[in-house]
Request: fold
Amino acid sequence: MGRGGWDRTPKRLDLHEDCANYRDEDGESLVVLGIIVHRRGSEGPNILVLEVKKTSNPVPRDCDQARIRAFRAQYGYEFAALIECETRTGREPAAGVVGWLEE
Reply:
C-alpha cells in the first residue's frame, strides 16, 4: 500500500512490449496511466481512465490507445480517453481529446 492507504501497484497489462511505458526493477513491462477514476477494491466500479501526453512525446499514439483499450478490456473501465497537450515552442498551448472510447 502506498501513502494514505492508496494502492500504487502498477498494473500489468497484456500489451506488446513496445507499448509499456515503465519497467520494474526486474525489467518487466508495466503500464501507468495518467488518471483513473474508480472505487477502490475488486468490486469497482471502474469508471474512467485517461492518458494525458504532450504532443512532443515520441511514443506512438497507437501505443497510447492500446494501453487505454487494455485497461478497459482487462480491468473493466467503462470510459477511456487519450488527451494530448500542445507544449512545443512556437505553438499555441492547447489540449484536446484525441480519442474517446466508451461501451
